[in-house]
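Internal QA ticket QA-208
Title: Verify multi-chain structure generation after dependency bump
Assignee: T.L.

Test input:
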Amino acid sequence: MDITVDGPDGYGNDAYAKLFDDIIGDIGKSFMFRKAHLCLKPEVPLFIFSVMLKNHPSSKTIGDVASFRAEGTELHMSISNERYAPDILSRLWKVYGRGKVDQQTRFDLIVHDARQEDIEDMVVSSGEESVKEIMGAFWRSLPEGIRVRHTYVDGRVITVVATEEIMRQEFLDEGLELHQRMLKESEVEEDV
Amino acid sequence: MFEVVKYDGGVYRSNELYEAIEDVGGTVINRMHSAQVLTVTMSIPEEDHEVIAKITKEIGGQLFNVPLAGTEIAVVGCTLGRHHMPHPICDIAEILREEGSISVVMGLARGRGKKTSQISLREISIIDEYDAVIFMLGNFKACVEEKKALMEKISVPVILVCGPEPEGMEDVCEAVISGVGRKAARMKAPEERAKLNEIADTVVKVISEKKAMLEEDPLFIHPAELKPLLESYEPIDMCLRPAPIVLHLDGLRVKIPYREHKEYFDNLMVYGRRLSEIADIRESKMEDSSTIIRIKTMSAVRDQDAKKAE
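Actual output:
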């Protein structure tokens, strides 16, 4: 992830770039980020965090990340995207029980007495959930006392404007300006 | 003067060590026994160090200096929220324990924020019960300097640990260590370990200065001498809390309620005097299940005697 930081405090800028990177790494969502811009003005105090994601967070079903082959009452599955393997396995265990899900290798499963139509529409990753987790990481990265927040979410760009006491119009304007700049850049960058 | 040292070795012939400690008039502060490994923190007269070193060598153990033993130090963060905990506050508390101190981690109730951060009178009173306090603040110079107000009314030595180098903190802090701000990971890298050692060395220096000041007007009785007397009291002996008696530089924290045992504490005889005559005894501000004993200095006891005689 490409992180740029604006702000008058040199030490704080470097420390927050590292902190933000560590926290995003902790929640396991680094792969979703294209770039981040942090604007840190502790003397105001005003903090603006804006991120551009690689793609629009959307829901993924098992059908999107695995292929199927039916043999009698057995349904053979091959997971094509490793990231979703644990979620798929736990979802199948929950619906069919451990006895009916046979894991051959990390990516190859056999589900007994199951139909492809039932499995392929199961949701393994919800876009809304991902956005919630990213927002949670923002709030963890922002200083604890900076509790008055406003969020802009459009397409692949999420921007949070935060201050300590009163959210002034000029703070919102500054946040919106950065948000629109990131939004314009996201239109140029390819959605992967 | 008494010094505190740590024995690290086996259990074999450890009885000889305990006898030697008793013979020289020392006391065991803490004993940790795990399988065949034994760690004993003890307070012994400085002039008898050689006696203990000799017996330690004979029974195959090692003797270490633990400069912070016999102290209780608080590490204070802005809050107990995940923004400030556990790193690096717990790393600092851990390095202090390695140096022999009993370290306690605390978070202020309303310490977060820049203009809205506050410390209450009760929090100040609780912090003042410790031998020293380490304040762990964040990464922005403007915020650290604004939070000077949190430390202004604290009477015990304050050591400030923060990211940038703040200005104008000299009048409220004994020492300032910069380069450790808010982190989301443990301090494991060599330069971070070096920073932790720098913090420990600074605390040792500050505590040594406080000890030297106490030596100028010594306490009526050293806390380590008082400890064995208190240990013989059944409710303390039966207390299941970890470290039921914690030594401070100028007294002790005893983890039984003062209200219930007032009679015992006030009338305990020490060198022919009642404990209430030679020490200030009160309930801990943190919780009413602990008692704080602050031993008076020789001169304070003499003054008290003179006033009585008038």
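Spot checks passed. Chain B touches chain A through 25 residues (CB under 8 Å).
Status: verified.
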